[in-house]
Amino acid sequence: MKPAPTYLTEADHAQISAAVAKAELQSAGEIVTILADRSDGYTDVALTWCAGVALLALAALSLFPEFYMGLYDWALADWGHEWTPRAIVGLAAGFATLKFAGAYLLQLWTPLKFAVIPGPVKTARVHERAVRAFRIGAEQRTMGRTGVLIYLSMREHRAEILADQAIATKVDPEVWGDAMQAMLGHVREGRVADGMCAAVLKVGAIVAPHFPRADDDINELPDRLIEV
Length: 228
What we know:
Blueprint: H1 10-24, E1 30-36, H2 43-63, H3 65-76, H4 85-106, H5 110-115, H6 119-137, E2 147-153, E3 158-163, H7 165-168, H8 177-188, H9 192-207, E4 226-227
Parallel strand pairs: 1-2, 1-4
Antiparallel strand pairs: 2-3
């Protein structure tokens, strides 16, 4: 298995950590940032495409049997071949297997694999992974339940912002749209670190009016970016 690409340098990590620290000076919110190469392996989707290609191949064979049987005879120069039911079934099985294997091999090229994954599937898998990460890294991890997760998944071109219970009761999910736009605008241009920093500062500004920082506030969650 190939290692995940490296999207950020050490300087980028330091920049994001500094942005988190700055944002948390404004409020009692605790911001966790996660950058993922991908949110799922999508093996089931790849196999579904393979099965679909194999079924289409069988459908084509059933519609144009003479063409494919003639192609088989031509390829093997088997002029005297007799097409028994067993031979026809063997041809169909071999043809479907080749198409299945070919579709699988094509999807080993990651850009193609992700290009043929339906958008709603990507959105659902990214959300599921973000929720799992939120439950592990931010939810109910602070005294005031003021954790916020900013999750960016590069291969799917999708992001999520999730807030713990106290913040979620004060801030409507739609409000995070400004932070999301600020982040994705930079990410689309290849400036991942700038995008994460923009989102972090926007989140801090959104949370601050509802949860101002107290004098005795302590840093309960790490400021560093997590790459997975």
